[in-house]
Amino acid sequence: MSRFPPQTTSTSVTTFSNTTNYAIGDQQPTTVNDDAGKTFTEHDLKRMREFGQLFNRDSSINRALLEELFRKEPSEYTQTIYRYASRIFHCLKADLTDNPILNVLANENKEQQPKKKILDVPKIDYANEKEKRRTLKLAFSVLRYQKVVEDLLDETQFFATFPDLRDEYSLVCTVLYDYLSRKFQVRDNPPDVNEPNNDVLITQTENSILQLKTHLAAALARNRIKAQALSIEELLPESLREVQQHGAELPVYSWVNLLKTDIKTILQIFENEEQMTRVYSINDVQRKTFMVDFHCPNLLIFHYSQKQRISNHRLVKNGLLYLQDKSSCIAATTVAKLLTKKDNILVAYVSGGLLIQLLISLTNELESKIYAFGARTDENMRDLQDKMKQFGVEKRMDILECVKIFKERFIDVNLDEVNLENIKVILCNPPCSRSALIQPLDFLYNEGEDVSLLKNFSQPVEDKAYIKECMQRETAYMRQAVKYSSAKAVVYVTYSKYVKENDDVVNVTISEQADIRQQKKDGNNYKIALPLIPIQISMGEHTKIIRHEKFLQFEASQKMNGIFVAVLVRDYEKRRIKKKQVHGSDSENNDEKEKRGTKHHGFQLETEARAKLRKATASQKSAQAAAMATTTTRTPSNRRAKSNVTATRDQIQTTSTPLEKPQPPPPPQQPKIPTLSEQLASIGKITSIETMNETKEQQQTKDATAKDSKL
């Protein structure tokens, strides 16, 4: 008989055992019969036991079950954020071609005009950075779940029930996504925000969704069952889900502001004050550890769970640390490695200014100036200048002397007419497809990119027309960069994974330069060189970053966003260096030769005269040696061999020694006097003949003695 928890109702429960015979080992089901004659199985008893413990105040699991059952999903959005996010969604949402009913409703009050894929997002004045981050997060989420939200509105006939909201389609989609992600619970303002809910239109939208929440929840459940999705995240296409999963585990990267501090001080703070341990492999980075990046020496890497902690750290708030992905740091480090003292930089696209700040930090000791293009408006220029002042540029020199920003686009400017001083390197970073990013929201927030970037990451299908447009723009930027004659190198950077935007753009630029060189017969063309950052694989990493032995590319992964880097250097500079080296070595050799010739001139002529005499003597000795070879089979003596070697060496020296001055006339011939070597040779000849005769006599004596012994 089973034991039951204390009864929570007045209904009595009676148990009995079934009289059916079971084999040994079979599980006998327990049944329960109440006063009304109902029979309960073991499954029913288990359910009753759970509910009995749920409503029993003395139960140990009562609190956990109640919290799970009645847990309220927190909301981090206010009505103001709803309004801002709906504006962004309205400008970036996809065309509703798959839903003709909603398409008619959306275009009901619009005049016929040429369609524009992306509308210009109006500038939004956020109250603080936290409100901006939350707005971008909500807008990006609605863009990704646009298809899911549209299906719910279509199946429940939401606009037929509430026709007053037809003109507020973007607002309805924005609010509906927040409610379905929180299980249609009533929204409360975040605890850190004190804002009254006095927006009449948004309040009406929320009340309408709550009135229809049963139908909306049922439609969502049907769609999940149809797609076999355990959560609403699984309703997304696979490509969007992968990006979301990888982005959630991306480490936190932050670089050190070398204008205000140094890397050793920052390391001591995290090791001593924060009690964190330094590791030397990115695979070993955990919650209480950090590491210094292998490729960028001023870049720190933290675990993704420490994102909020690092973002709110005093070092970040005081401008000593800046959060930025490693991909952007790779581009800046590559440029810094190409610079020397007082070499200046030209940046093709200023973006949000964070890349400019990193370049200033890396080139602080070099005293480099930076010229940047693409600020677009006066307001953006003022924002960028304010960022530079907060960064600490005024401590080094005047802001106008250190960084100069232009509103014009890089490809619209004649660089020869602009006052650019000593430009050594051009950082060509045109706006690209950003297809290699796995965390676009943080990239958008940190880099200050255009909000229209979010649209590309909310579409599951590759937009070939947009990629072609990016490729054409990138090619135009590269043509403009290589056209500037004063630059010595061009660093081409993209955040794209497509070969069309990476390799093809570089190869087209190189081929065009070759054609121009042939036409103008000018050797000032560019060639591809390897980036000057460490390319070895660090401990624990197994990523190939060099492609085709000339390009640097980090593929998108759970460790970092993807980036492509190509370095182009002028070919004439290489040849000039080689020419200088060759001329320098020749001049050194000539100086040494002149010194040696001046110092030993008389000795050299005297040696050559004696060498000629030795040569004539050597020819005579060679004839004598040939005659000797016919009369004897023994080798000459050591003295004879030494004489031959000496003659040969003198002959080699005579043929190899150059004459720097005209050869003097040969001396007049005198009666031949036997030299010492000839006398020694004759003595050796006699000695060798006598020795040979003595040896023959000794051999004959030995043979005769041997015959006598045999007899």
UniProtKB/TrEMBL annotation:
InterPro entries listed in its UniProt record: MeTrfase_RsmB-F_NOP2_dom, NSUN5_7_fdxn-like, NSUN7, SAM-dependent_MTases_sf
Positions in coiled-coil regions: none
Compositionally biased intervals (Polar residues): 643-658
Keyword Ion transport: no
Swiss-Prot/TrEMBL GO biological process terms: methylation
Span of domain SAM-dependent MTase RsmB/NOP-type: 242-571
Segments for region (Disordered): 576-711
GO molecular function list: methyltransferase activity; RNA binding
Basic and acidic residues bias spans: 583-595, 693-711
Low complexity bias (residue ranges): 616-635
Keywords linked to the UniProt accession: Methyltransferase, RNA-binding, S-adenosyl-L-methionine, Transferase
Protein's UniProt keywords contain Transferase: yes
Protein family per UniProt: Belongs to the class I-like SAM-binding methyltransferase superfamily. RsmB/NOP family.
Gene3D superfamilies associated with the record: Sun protein, domain 3, Vaccinia Virus protein VP39
Record's compositionally biased regions (Pro residues): 661-671
Name of the molecule in the record: SAM-dependent MTase RsmB/NOP-type domain-containing protein
